[in-house]
Amino acid sequence: MSEQIVLLGHILIPATVFVIMMCLGLDLRIEDFKRIFIYPQAIITGICGQLLLLPAMAFLIAAWFESSLVLQIGIVLLAACPGGPLSNSFVYLGKGRVDLSVSLTAINGFLALVSTPFIASLGIAIFAGQSTDIQLPILKTIAQIFMVAILPIVLGMILRAKFPQIHTNHLQLVQRLAVLMLVTHISIVITMNFPRIGATFAEMIVPALFFCILAVITGVVTSKLMGLDKSVQFTIGIEVGLQNVVLAILIAEVILKRPEFALFVLTYAVGTLFIILPWVYLHRRQQTEY
């Protein structure tokens, strides 16, 4: 692959992440962060599921596949990036608790400024050992996450507060833009890694499906153990099950400059649809019947 394509990818990947997260910010308000005091049990369950239980589960899965360092680091990076930008849409389609979903995405997104570099660097240290060519610069990662994930969310929230008609009159346009940017983002990474994807898809797909299923089960079971209702169980299951693919790819491609570590993330992005979409359909049908 030419250096020009790689350079272009390293410019476009952060740019698409920025736009996606800004679209997310346009859907947020300060009130979304206050829900931790309104629904503390559900919020804390979701946060613990994404930032504690899911990474622990991911590390166990990575340890199981000890023969592939690329697979292990891919799992770790994905587990370190909570709050997939599509989770709110899937919760909405499944008639779950959209307010809870938006709040969890917002809160976990800000916590990721610290949690993502910590979890990712811990995983790399455990599975890559002292390998000198796989190093995650903590301060650079925090700065990068702030610039492409936190800052655009804040800007989006400010725009919504200053110009509420953007959200009121153009919400569908904003959502379509976010989806377009997500598709563009993934397409860029696929183009940059096309030969590798074909060679590793068969190896990655089973662990990716396994990861997604266990992530969803983790969210649902913990919610059930906490005595939360089925709608909340569904919502937290989606939130824990859908990780921030765009952020994980950014870390692999731009910060680590190791595109092979994005292969598991891409496989997960495709495979997870076969798990999440049928569940969304079934939950929506149940809610419609009642």
Summarize the structure.
With 290 residues, the protein is mainly α. It is 83% helix and 0% strand. It has twelve helices and no strands.
If you had to describe this structure to a student in words, what would you say it looks like?
The chain is mainly alpha-helical. It is built from 12 helices and no strands. It has helices at residues 3-25, 30-38, 40-64, 69-79, 87-93, 98-128, 138-162, 165-225, 230-241, 245-255, 263-271, 273-289. α1 (3-25) crosses α8 (165-225), α3 (40-64) runs parallel beside α6 and α8 packs across α9. The model has no long low-confidence stretch (mean pLDDT 84).
Layout: helices, strands, pairs:
Elements: H1 3-25, H2 30-38, H3 40-64, H4 69-79, H5 87-93, H6 98-128, H7 138-162, H8 165-225, H9 230-241, H10 245-255, H11 263-271, H12 273-289
Distance between the termini: 54 Å
Helix and strand pattern: HHHHHHHHHHHH
Please give the share of residues in helix: over 70%
Annotation field: number of helices: 12
Overall mean confidence score, pLDDT: 84
Rg, nearest Å: 18 Å
State the low-pLDDT regions, or none: none
Provide the structure class: mainly alpha
**Strand coverage percent:** under 5%
Shape: globular
Report the sheet with the most strands, covering strand number, pairing sense and barrel closure. Answer: none
Number of strands: 0
